[in-house]
Amino acid sequence: MKRVWLFFLTAFALPSAAMATDTDLIPIKGGEFTMGSAPDVRWRGADESEHQVKVDDFLLGKYEVSQALYEEVMGVNPSLNRGKMLPVENITWIEAVTFCNELSKREHLKPVYTISDSEIIYDRNADGYRLPDEAEWEYACRAGTNTNYSNGYSISADEANYCGHYPYDIEPNYFKPETLRVQPGVYRQHPVNIDSFSPNAFGLYNMHGNVCEWVNDTYLGDYNNSDKSGVYKVYRGGGYNDFAKHIRSAYRGILPLYLKKLAVGLRLARNAGSHNSASENVTRIPSFEKRSGKGLVVFFSWSNNTRNMASIISAKTGSDVLELTPEKKDLYSENYSEVLVQAWQDQFNRTEPKLVNLPENLDGYDTVYIGYPLWWASIPRPVVSFLKAYDFSGKKVMIFSSGGGGHMQQSASDLMKECGAMDYGSLLEVSYSGGPDLDKKIEKWLSDNNLK
């Protein structure tokens, strides 16, 4: 969303430790803890139900994996923000576990993952490098605490690398920041070195912010779902371009295992003796046919930026267009300051505005393009109403967004939690109107996804 305040942007990091090594693993003593967040926690996700979990002893990386190590092992550096001691980012879950295997082979350890074109088998008994399980990650992040962050109720931009303009609970206090426990700070707009800031009580660096970190678990909604299938994988910790609410200890982000996103990297883990979890599980790798059927461009727009994007996409693909229009005509004010308040209230209350002129079904469409402006780092609630009205099974979903420079933040994850589709293309995100080269950006996005 458009900024009202202006801040000086500075690149901040504590002095680098002389021997910051990616493969430094810290022994984490296991125990029982309360995973998730209490019902009264502000901005708590519907998938964060509190429950008791027992974690066995394990080893966890002191730091996020650096670009230097990733490139040394894999021969490539996929990161968009370059620097040897910056964390690697912009990788898929499949690339993350492949890296773990290659590092294990280099150090003569048994690889944890058996990878084929159709499936990935996770052998929990192998002694090689792996991703942490989701419970392990949260246990280590909390480091004995039960608060929003390992340092308490809120976290400042001097303690973690995130979108510091938006500290915890900024939404209802946007025009009266003096009421916040932590004041708005700097937004660095890029990752910092893996040994920046102070570690938590377990000695782990950057568990909050910097880059999101892939974990092993498949996402199936709330924790009480016992099914183990699906294409969504969980990442934790939030990134440098996320709001504070998205770097909480309990927050869960998701992406399909084959999709990459800016500011998503990894942290290494290994076994440390016996454990109680299942020794083996299987992740299926989906395969999708090229889409050649009719498309539908669905969008919600407030300032016409997203409407313009939708028009260009429709013209280039020959797709039909559906604008999401709330039944209540004055639902959102034309005044920017007023719509800011309306938008966060909608999200906080999880409203689902009634829409008009919706089709009976989406049966005639092969590909659905969904566009929206970035509101408080998430999707506007009319988009949620649309997502809950239809079944997206068998369809390809293409997500595009116009925001204020936040790089889509967690909006794609929020959309996917509501949508549940299997087949997604790469994400298209632009700032405000997209600039003079918007047409070229859209052209390349469609071409990269074989949708011209």
Please provide a written account of the structure.
The protein is an alpha/beta fold and 452 residues long. The protein has 2 domains: 25-284, Alpha-Beta Complex (paralog of FGE (formylglycine-generating enzyme)), CATH 3.90.1580; 295-448, Rossmann fold (3-Layer(aba) Sandwich). It has 8 helices and 20 strands. It has helices spanning 67-74, 93-106, 134-142, 305-317, 336-349, 381-387, 411-419, 438-448, and strands at residues 25-28, 31-35, 51-55, 58-61, 113-115, 119-123, 212-218, 232-236, 253-256, 264-265, 269-271, 280-284, 295-299, 320-323, 325-326, 355-356, 367-373, 396-403, 423-424, 428-431. Strands 13, 14, 17, 18, 19 and 20 form a 6-stranded parallel sheet that branches. It is globular. The protein starts with 24 loop residues before the first strand and ends with a helix. Mean pLDDT is 92; it is low at 1-19.
Key traits:
452 residues, alpha/beta, Rossmann fold, 2 domains, six-stranded parallel sheet, four-stranded mixed sheet, 8 helices, 19% helix
